[in-house]
Amino acid sequence: MQKRYCALRVSRSIAKFGKMVLMEDANVSTGFEDSRAGTRTWHFVVGVFALLAALIGIGAISFAAFQRAVDIERTRTEAVARTSEGFESLVAAERVINALQEAERSQRGFVLTENPVFLEPYEAAIARSSSVLDELQRRIGEGDERQTARFVVLRRLITLKLEEMARSVEMTRRGRMEAARIDVASGYGRRLMDEIQAMMNEIVEEQRAVLDRRQQEVVKRDHLGAQSLYRLAALGVALLVAALISMIALAYMVYRTKLALEREEAGEIRRNVLEAAVAARTHELTQANVALRAEIASREAAENRLRQAQRMEAVGQLTGGIAHDFNNMLAVIISSLDLLKRRISADDARVVKLIDNAREGANRAASLTARLLAFSRRQSLNPQTVDVNTLMTGVVELIGRTLGERISVETKFGDNIPPVFVDPGELENVIINLAANARDAMPDGGALTIETKRYVPDGEPLSEGEAASAYALISVTDTGQGMPPEVAERVFEPFFTTKAVGKGTGLGLSQVHGFVHQSGGHISLESTPGEGTRVDIYLPVQIIGRVVSSAPRAEGPLARGSAEETILVVEDEDHLRMVTVENLRELGYTVRHAENGKEALEILDEHPGIRLLFTDIVMPGMYGDELAREALSRWPDLGILYTSGFARTGVDGEPLDPPAETVRKPYTMEGLAQKVRESLDHASRVEAAASPASGS
């Protein structure tokens, strides 16, 4: 309200100032007319004034020509400066390559000789490479989307090269010279360096071409400057002659009409000054008023977005916490049912059926918690590099058979859409979910349009999601009933639905919202009652360096263990810990258990023969990955296996450190058996591979 009042005051000030200036201008005009009436008989003054105006015009032309020459000289100076910048860009590119080559030579020298004298130039070159790369990007990459994308790739390649060198140096420091030399001899670092060298060569060639163009521009500017100075000199001589002749002819007339002309000129100047002041002040106040109104609208929109985001975040935290606790309960139920089914007689069909029914209900409850975790962005995903058009083609074939004959499906697939890094199965579920909602909004039939295209932000980046130079845009549009604004604002909230009881859970669109944001994207919805709804999904393009998760393995026989293999189970939930221990003992393992990280470390100290640490991630006191780091620092050969009701990341969303496989809650006995067996076998292979190196 206060901002609107300020805008109203500005408008009133503009009107008041305009009235004052108009009154003042009327007084000036009256005085000017009186002056002209007193000198009306002096007709020859008109001729004098015309000649004087001609001279002023010639002087203005001369000034414009001089200004043009100054501008040409300035642009030439700027061209010379850009040429100098081109030379500096080439020098910066050479410094990047020199820094990386110096680091590589020092790294290889240290790996081959173990002489620490190589470490100082290696570390200096590493530190220098980042600054010279920043300088090179600042000189040639700012404001250019193509160069920005190239520097993203170049930085990732340099990062991989630095990580490769750091890995071999660290192994050499720890005495694993053979492993470090094998790593160097693998050729991976050489290939990275070749790719970096190739990209730097492209940059150097482009900069040399730019430098050639700039040098040609300097020559051109010199030529233009010489022509402009010649013309200026000729025009100056002509003006000097004309001025002398005019002054001699008009001196007598100017002397007689001096006083009248001074009065008239003073009035004209005063009126022009006042008109200019009125125009400038009016323009200034108008611009201030427009800016103030725009700021009011922008702040109101930002406050609305902030309130919506805070509400969604609060609901997400609540649902995520509930889903996590519920997953622990379901894990106890499912594991207990697995044990019960294995221990009863298979001939008792009624009991087996009851157990299967209970197991099915628990699995459906697990599916519900998965939707809640999807909304809160904590579900487990299997991201892969996905071609959007190929995936959409398969989805369209599926939904075309399920929507019915009264709904037509149209597709508009764009060209040159870059790949994205998402879970393809979950993305298919998102499109199917949106198609099902569109079908419900078109009970009398209609049209469903699925469109894909490449989207590049123009100006500011998207308000949410992962910042990217380009996105793959998927749009799903229907011609259904549409939604009023108060409904459209809440469609992504969990459990919110306008459908009748029993026809919807209210989790579909909230799951879509959570998946898109967990994948680093952005989603928006536009709906008009009676016209239809449009949902736009923005997914960032594939980023170099992302690791594609491995595909799920086919189910096989139940993997078992032996009593010689001891497993330590760390779980703060008592019932879940006990049922997990029983499952592992049923599989043949020797099992010990602890309810927190401190107790687990004490058990590891007392029983050094433990082969695998199976720990929950979210625990009071000490998180699971913290426990794993501490345990590996004491027992490097210990195998690690995580479990969690959240996604396969750390508590704060960062990757787990140390990395290891994760069993998602609630887990089955078959899934637990497979992951435990794989983790033990992996730990055995790592220990076997490290034995020859340590022995040498």
Automatic annotation (TrEMBL):
Sequence intervals crossing the membrane: 42-66, 229-255
InterPro entries: CHASE3, CheY-like_superfamily, HATPase_C_sf, HATPase_dom, His_kinase_dom, HisK_dim/P_dom, HisK_dim/P_sf, Sig_transdc_His_kin-like_C
Keywords: Membrane, Phosphoprotein, Transmembrane, Transmembrane helix
Chain positions with 4-aspartylphosphate modification: D616
Gene3D superfamilies (UniProt xref): 1.10.287.130, 3.40.50.2300, Histidine kinase-like ATPase, C-terminal domain
Ranges of residues in domain Histidine kinase: 321-543
Top EC category: transferase
Keyword Cell membrane: no
Cited Pfam families: CHASE3, HATPase_c, HisKA, Response_reg
E.C. designation(s): 2.7.13.3
Domain Response regulatory, first and last residues per copy: 566-680
Catalytic activity: ATP + protein L-histidine = ADP + protein N-phospho-L-histidine
PANTHER family: HISTIDINE KINASE (PTHR43065:SF49), SENSOR HISTIDINE KINASE (PTHR43065)
Protein name: histidine kinase
Provenance organism: Sphingosinicella microcystinivorans
